[in-house]
């Protein structure tokens, strides 16, 4: 069905996701006949190109990798992604350090903005890494999330637009935020201050006649303190990046327990909607085992796309850029683009974390030597 002949409630499926793009995997005939829209024709052209790629065999792994990149480049670059009916607020959390929270936040945000959506990143980590990667000024003294949380300053006074990607906004973090955990302890409504501020920002945008924000990503510090609690209260969804390494799953049960507590006391709507495997190295047994184990425990929530270990991804922040702008055609950028597309096309999960099996493993799989 094309978006032209959809019944009213147009293009919206039962998941509440607006389907403004045809599925590139369906037959091309329906997309090229009379009545085909420009988007249909574009999808047909992309599908034809993908079909024309050589087929790799089991003994051509390099060709297989190249083919994945080529398919992603053809299918995804320059495409518009579906706009959610209402703003999706996604907290990116894992109290484990260095697992790819910030990298995931900024690259998914940039990919979605490049695909035509309005995206806001809340840098909720005193390290300010997300601000750095987005090229956003966050020197001491810059209006930031600290003033928003501690002084209840209006969020719009601190939000900056990305210099590289239109439609991408960031509330920066400065070094001041490192004191906020302690300052917040004695404050009124200490757990809900970020939510109140974000609601105020949305109201302000409406009054200004600005477009609705489609996605908000909150980048968290590697801890489960008050900053992270604020991030869990402001969101409906949690995205957990998991690094495909030894000890990857340790601490996960503590994270899930914290989320359950937040659900019970502060935000009943919160759910772990998405798990993303990062720094995946397909050549090692360990990475494959970790990925397999995560998929066994969270079959629905784990994105099919894994993010490979990539030099381009790790270089980008030193240029104040995401990999999407630094080298948009690289494997790492294409993987984040594919992950962003999956995220955009998935339903907002309504289930809660309570259906997650109790036996979340405390330890990693054995490496088979
Ligand atoms: N896919 C990847 N390939 C290569 N390097 C990566 C990849 N993802 C992240 N990195 C690098 O790994 C390091 C940690 O990543 P990142 O800062 O995103 O983790 P984090 O979970 O936000 O860390 P923290 O807990 O300190 O906030 C960074 O140097 C980053 O550039
Ligand atoms: Mg980080």
Automatic annotation (TrEMBL):
InterPro entries: AAA_dom, DNA_Partitioning_ATPase, P-loop_NTPase. It comes from the Bacteria. Residues 88-271 form the AAA domain. Residues 1-45, 348-369 are annotated as: Disordered. Residues 12-28 have a biased composition (Basic and acidic residues). This is ParA family protein. The lineage of its organism: Bacteria, Bacillati, Actinomycetota, Actinomycetes, Micrococcales.
């Amino acid at each position: 069905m094309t978006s032209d002949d959809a019944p009213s409630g147009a293009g919206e499926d039962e998941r509440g996701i607006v389907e403004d793009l045809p599925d590139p995997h369906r037959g091309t005939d329906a997309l090229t006949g009379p009545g085909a829209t420009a988007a249909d024709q574009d999808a047909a052209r992309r599908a034809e190109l993908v079909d024309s790629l050589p087929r790799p065999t089991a003994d051509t792994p390099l060709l297989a990798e190249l083919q994945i990149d080529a398919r992603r480049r053809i299918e995804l670059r320059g495409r518009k992604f579906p706009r959610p009916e209402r703003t999706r607020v996604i907290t990116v959390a894992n109290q484990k350090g260095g697992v790819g929270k910030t990298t995931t936040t900024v690259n998914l945000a940039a990919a979605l903005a490049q695909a035509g959506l309005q995206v806001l990143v809340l840098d909720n980590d005193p390290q300010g890494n997300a601000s750095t990667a987005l090229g956003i000024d966050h020197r001491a003294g810059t209006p930031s999330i600290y003033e928003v949380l501690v002084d209840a300053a209006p969020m719009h006074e601190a939000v900056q637009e990305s210099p590289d990607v239109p439609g991408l906004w960031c509330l920066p973090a400065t070094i001041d935020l490192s004191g906020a955990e302690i300052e917040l302890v004695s404050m009124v409504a200490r757990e809900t201050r970020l939510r109140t501020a974000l609601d105020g920002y949305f109201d302000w945008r409406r009054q200004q006649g600005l477009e609705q924000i489609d996605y908000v990503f909150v980048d968290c510090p590697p801890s489960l303190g008050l900053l992270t609690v604020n991030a869990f209260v402001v969101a409906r969804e949690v995205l957990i990046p998991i690094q495909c390494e030894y000890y990857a799953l340790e601490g996960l049960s503590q994270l899930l327990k914290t989320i359950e507590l937040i659900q019970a006391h502060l935000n009943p709507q919160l759910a772990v909607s998405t798990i993303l495997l990062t720094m995946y190295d397909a050549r090692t047994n360990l990475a494959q085992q970790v990925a397999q184990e995560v998929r066994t425990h969270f079959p629905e929530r784990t994105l099919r796309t894994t993010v490979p270990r990539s030099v381009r991804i790790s270089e980008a922040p030193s240029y104040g850029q995401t990999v999407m702008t630094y080298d948009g055609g690289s494997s790492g950028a294409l993987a984040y683009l594919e992950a962003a597309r999956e995220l955009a096309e998935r339903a907002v999960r309504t289930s809660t974390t309570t259906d997650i099996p109790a036996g979340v493993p405390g330890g990693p799989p054995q490496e088979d030597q």
